[in-house]
Amino acid sequence: MSFEDLNLHPSIIKAINELGYTSPTPIQQQAIPELIQGHDVMASAQTGTGKTAAFMLPALHRLATPTKVQGRGPRILVLTPTRELALQVSDAASKYGKYLSRIKVVSILGGMSYFLQNKLLSQTVDILVATPGRLIDHIQRGRIDFSRLEMLVLDEADRMLDMGFVHDVESIASTTPASRQTLLFSATLDSTIDKIAARLLKSPKRIQVASQRAKLENIEQRLHYVDDLLHKNKLLDHLLRDQSLKQAIVFTATKRDADDLADDLAAQGHEVGALHGDMSQRERTRTLTKLRNGRLRILVATDVAARGIDIADITHVINFDLPKFAEDYVHRIGRTGRAGASGIAVSFASGKDSISLKRIERFTGQRITPSVIPGIEPKFKPRIRQNEGKAQKVPHVVHKRNRSWASNERNSFNHTDSNKNHSHRFERTPSNDSKKRSFRRPNQFNSGIYAESSN
C-alpha cells in the first residue's frame, strides 16, 4: 500500500514524498481511513511506529477543506504529556503541511513566555499543540475560543494519566464542541484508558496494531549487575568509550542525579547535556537542538525524555537507574533503534532491583541476559532466575578493550576533588531540613530511592 491509496490531499502526498516516506506503517494504514471518514478512534501504538503521522495526516487533510465557522480559534487541538513531545508534533505538522496554504501551527507549553503565547493566540490558529496545564491557564483566562474546533487528539494518553492530567484533560474536553471528532492514542489500552474513552469518545473504532509485549527485535538489550556507585561509573565510562556509540541517552532516576552525572561526564571531556523538568523551556529546546545537530554525544535525562525524542543517530540507551514503571522501560529504550535502525539498550541493576527486572521482563515478554565485562565484573552474584523451569543462560561476555583500568583511574568518576577534603563522589539524598543536605557513600544505590513529581 502507498500513501496515495489512503486518499490524502495531493499537497500532503507531495510533502511526505519529499520526506522520503514510501509506504504507510500498520498504524497509519488502519487509522488514517477511519479518521478521514470522521470516526472517533482509540488506538494502541508503541513508540516508533509512526503514530504522529497517523493522526496528523488526516488532521491536515481536514484542514485542506475551508471551514464556514468564523473565528480565530484552532480547528485541531493536540494534547501531549510533555513539552518535548508537543514540539515534535508541532514540527511534524509543519513538515507534513508545508504545501497547504496558510496553515498556522502554534505550541502552548509550560516554561514559555505568557506574553509570546498571548500574541500567538490573538492570531488565527489552525493547529494548537499544548500540554494540559498551560492550556488550562489560558482557558481560564478566556484567551482561547474553541468554537471552530473539529478534532481533539489525546497523544500518549496513558502517560498523561500517569502524570495526573486526567482531570485537566476532561476539563479541556468539556470546553470543546460536542460535535468534535476525538482521537486517543496510547501505548496501552487497559481498563483505565477504556473508562476515559467511554467519557470522551463516541462509538470509537478500536485499533491495536502493536502488542503490549512488543519484541523490539532491532534493539539489543543488555543487563549489567552492579555492586555500588563506583562500579556503575566504571561500567558507564567503559560504554561511553566505545567507538560504535554515536549518540546516547543516559537515564537517571531524579533531576538532581541528571545534573550531577552530566557534570561528571563533562569533567571527563565528554560532549554532554542534561534534560529534566526543572529546566526552562528555552534551556530544554537548546539542549535538544544541540543533540539533533550532533553537538552533543551524550544526553543525561530523566523520564521527561523517554517520549517525544526522535533522533536517528541515537545508537545507545543506558539505564543508569532502572525506571519505576515497566512501561517507561519500553519508552526509554525506544529512543534507539528508530526507523528500522539497530540499537543497543544497556541497564544497570543491583540486588535490590530484582522486582523491577521481573516486571520489565513480564511486560516485554523478553528475558534480558546479564552481561559481564572482563576486569569490571560484579562481586554481587545474583540468584539464577528461572524461566519456564529452565535455568538462565550463562551471562554474555562483553570483551573489554586492551587497556588497564589502573592506568586510567584518573579518568574514572571516583576522581579526587582538589577543592575538597575527600576523594569520593557522594550522592545527595533528601534531608528533613531543606537547608541542610545529607550524603551517603558510593556503596549506596540511587535506583528510585526518592521520586520527584515532575521530571
Automatic annotation (TrEMBL):
Keywords: ATP-binding, Cytoplasm, Helicase, Hydrolase, Nucleotide-binding. Residues 404-416, 441-455 have a biased composition (Polar residues). It is an enzyme of class 3 (hydrolase). One of its GO terms (biological process) is response to temperature stimulus. Pfam families: DEAD, Helicase_C. A motif (Q motif) lies at residues 1-29. Residues 383-455 are annotated as: Disordered. The keyword Nucleotide-binding applies. It catalyses: ATP + H2O = ADP + phosphate + H(+). One of its GO terms (molecular function) is nucleic acid binding. Residues 417-436 have a biased composition (Basic and acidic residues). Its EC number is 3.6.4.13. Residues 1-29 form the DEAD-box RNA helicase Q domain. GO terms for cellular component: cytosol. The keyword Hydrolase applies. Residues 32-207 form the Helicase ATP-binding domain. Residues 234-384 form the Helicase C-terminal domain. Belongs to the DEAD box helicase family. This is DEAD-box ATP-dependent RNA helicase RhpA. The lineage of its organism: Bacteria, Pseudomonadati, Pseudomonadota, Betaproteobacteria, Nitrosomonadales.
